[in-house]
Design a protein that fits this description.
65 residues, alpha+beta, 4-stranded antiparallel beta sheet, 4 strands, 28% helix
Length: 65
Amino acid sequence: MKDAMQVEILKDGSIKVETDKVSSGNHMSAEAFIRFISEQAGGKTTRVAKGHRHTHEHEHVEQEG
């Protein structure tokens, strides 16, 4: 099984993370990485399942000041 994540910063500032199946040995690390990105960027997190694949999107919130 190939453990891989594709991370993309979209034009609207949101962060998109796509994964295929992740092995059980790496699953917790992958979840922790996605959670870390979400916490550091702030904003709303949305998860969308695509068959056996999972897509994790995060909207970036601009702060004025």
